[in-house]
Amino acid sequence: MQQIITALLASVPIVLASQTVFSVHDDLLAFPQYEVVFSDSFISDIEAKSIVEQASAAVPESPRSSDTKSIESRVDDTPQASADNAFDPRHETYELMYLHGEQHLCTIPIVNIPTKNETSKAEARAAEQKELARATNRGWELLQELDGGCLYFVSGWWSYAFCYNNEITQFHQLPPQPGKPLLPPQPDPTTKQFVLGRAKGKGKPSKEDEWEKEIEVSKKKKASEDPPKTELQIKGDTRYLVQKMEGGTTCDLTGKPRRVEVQFHCNPHVTDRIGYIKEVTTCSYLMVVYTPRLCSDVAFQPPKVNKAHSIVCRAVVPEEDIQDRKELKEIESQLEAPQKEKPINVGGVILGAGKWINKEGQRMPIPANFGQEPTGRVVEVIARAKSKLEGGKVEMASDKELAKLDLDPEMVETVKKEVQKMAKEKGWKIEVVDAPGQIREILGIVDGDEDEPEDEEGSQEVFYKDEL
Q: What is the pLDDT confidence band of residue 307, given thresholds at 50, 70 and 90?
């Protein structure tokens, strides 16, 4: 397959996308770009042969030369080939190719060929250096809006303050105080503070190490008032400005002042902020700052993705097999279609059927009898007897009534005998108490117990829990 694609691309006019004006985004040998797309559609051999013959007989217009200034505009203006495009020899060429013994008709877009740039290498190199210098100076101008402000970053124990065009300090901040703003963080006066680097021409070289011991420093000339030196660096498709700051607090491990490299990256989606800071080597640091200010210059913006020209290849099928191929394709599409899952039935309810709650999330209507169910205690008297003075008549629920209450007549008879024994000549009754969320209770109550003091013997009650 690689040989087929190589031969196919070899048939396409290859041109160098040289440009009269240098752009930091251009890869001069990467254009024009092509991609080979194998379409799911097919074409009959008679139709394919006819297209190739007509394309050969037609005299296509020679690609017009254009002295374009951007690769992006050249790519966007070129029509992209498609499997469903009509025959158009002015913008496409056609080739019959073979892949694994199967014939394909490939449609190749005609790309406009720019005029060859005759600029010498020396002039091109000079233009490149000029563009990089312009981008560097412009980037520095855009960053001047940060002058006079500070950015802060917290990483564990340490906090960092980057005051633009001044210095970067490392310190431990005090805990947030109630009623006081979180920014700027306040340094802890009991903890040592370090200067990681100073901007060129700002401040004086430290004459003390981090233990506040005096050290000897060589005399230097007066610092220049020129703007700090920055340079544009490129890493892959990323372009950013770099500022190197030195002259920080002397490191006790290396005996040299601390230093830091600050990278300014374009990020249009955030405000000015410190992305991260890390110690790359002993007392040497790297700080990355994300800012939308650099995005005003195209040199720092991420490059746009250029769409490749599509070379579309369709399978060539004999005319007599076209109908069979269509039926086969239809069967394949049906097999590849997601199968409808069988609904799940739980207790006669179809899950996901939307019978009770529809897909729009509307609530079920409240039943008419909602809230009318008894919520308090329900008491049923299943047996009672009057006192001996009142005749001692005993009333008892029938076995049928007890069965409705799910009570065992023998158990009720046992409770009755115990209550009679406890009541003696007094009246009594047996109650069944149902309370929501509780076990059903059976109470034997003797008349007069509620009016007597609790410490007297007459205040007695037989209590049962019906766990049946």
A: confident
